[in-house]
């Protein structure tokens, strides 16, 4: 009897938490496709508000995608070799450098934005360009790429793999591109998805760094809510979900695939690592 009571209590609590999180999302999405927000679904469903969002804010969506993909390219070029260098360093030095690299995550985004404005705000062409926002996004997302790749490198003996390749005559660059990179693929993919999703949804930094000509999707979303056009703002939220949810699902699939690859079969089974 007590177990049944405990089961129903846990079930009701879990459903209550899920409802607390999901219901606002569902209502927001419905508001974006409802003809009259104040009457509700009874007023009918429409795609008119999504059309208005596309007409008013399409440039912010394109700019967000441009910044996110550019941010991904830079963090890949800088972050993957950076994680490799950290993995080869002495643990004490590596930990100290890692803490410095991760610092932008601990510092509020507004503080990073103010630092960038104070330092580079006097360069007009750079200040008014989308590259200014990109620099802030790179600072904020680079630690996620480095830590994802570094976690994979730390979980395997890549030095032994490199030594084996070197004994066969492979040069440094050949070892890096044919041994290190393929083995760190799960970390690279996880880091890439994290960078893209964070860059698309980043608001604090972007709010301080943007100009009227360089609005991104979250800034446009804030503007639409500030104008009290709830249907348009909700439709904007729906567009945001359409862009971000597939990336989050892909992140979960990659994490699951990575976990399967790391699963070690006990010696009593096959004495090998499942690949």
What characteristics describe this protein?
single chain, 275 residues, mainly alpha, MetI-like fold, 79% helix, membrane, transmembrane
Topology:
Layout: H1 2-32, E1 34-36, E2 40-45, H2 48-88, H3 91-106, H4 109-120, H5 124-127, H6 130-154, H7 158-167, H8 172-183, H9 185-201, H10 204-209, H11 217-226, H12 230-262
Antiparallel strand pairs: 1-2
Helix pairs in contact: 1-12, 2-6, 2-9, 2-12, 3-6, 6-9, 7-8, 9-12, 11-12
Account of the protein in words:
This protein is mainly alpha-helical. It has one domain: MetI-like fold (Orthogonal Bundle), CATH 1.10.3720. Helices cover about 80% and strands about 5% of the residues. A two-stranded antiparallel ribbon has the order 1-2. Strand 1 (about 35) and strand 2 (about 40-45) form a beta hairpin. Helix 1 (about 1-30) crosses helix 12 and helix 2 packs across helix 6. The chain is globular and about 75 Å long. It starts with a helix and ends in a 13-residue tail after the last helix. InterPro entries: MetI-like (IPR000515), MetI-like_sf (IPR035906). It holds the Pfam family BPD_transp_1. It is a multi-pass membrane protein. Keywords: Cell inner membrane, Cell membrane, Membrane, Transmembrane, Transmembrane helix, Transport. This is Putative spermidine/putrescine transport system permease protein.
């Amino acid at each position: 009897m007590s177990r049944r009571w405990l089961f129903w209590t846990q079930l009701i609590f879990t459903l209550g938490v899920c409802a607390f999180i999901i219901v606002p999302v569902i209502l927001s999405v419905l508001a974006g496709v409802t003809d009259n927000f104040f009457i509700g679904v009874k007023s009918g469903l429409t795609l008119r508000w999504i059309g208005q969002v596309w007409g008013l804010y399409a440039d912010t969506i394109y700019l967000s995608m441009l910044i996110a993909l550019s941010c991904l390219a830079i963090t890949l070029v800088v972050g993957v070799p950076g994680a490799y260098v950290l993995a080869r360093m002495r643990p004490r030095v590596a930990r100290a450098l890692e803490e410095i690299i991760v610092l932008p995550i601990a510092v509020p985004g507004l503080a990073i934005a103010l630092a960038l404005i104070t330092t580079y705000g006097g360069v007009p062409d750079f200040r008014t360009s989308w590259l200014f926002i990109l620099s802030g996004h790179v600072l904020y997302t680079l630690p996620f790429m480095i830590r994802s790749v570094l976690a994979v490198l730390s979980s395997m003996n890549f030095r032994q793999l490199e030594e084996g390749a070197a004994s066969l005559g492979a040069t440094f660059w050949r070892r890096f591109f044919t041994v290190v990179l393929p083995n760190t693929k799960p970390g690279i993919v996880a880091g890439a998805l994290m960078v893209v999703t964070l860059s698309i949804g980043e608001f604090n930094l972007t709010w301080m760094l943007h100009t009227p000509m360089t609005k991104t999707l979250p800034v446009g979303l804030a503007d639409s809510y500030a104008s009290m056009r709830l249907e348009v703002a909700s439709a904007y939220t729906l567009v945001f979900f359409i862009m971000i949810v597939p990336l989050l699902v892909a992140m979960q699939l990659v994490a699951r695939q990575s976990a399967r690859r790391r699963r070690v079969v006990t010696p009593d089974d096959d004495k090998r690592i499942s690949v």
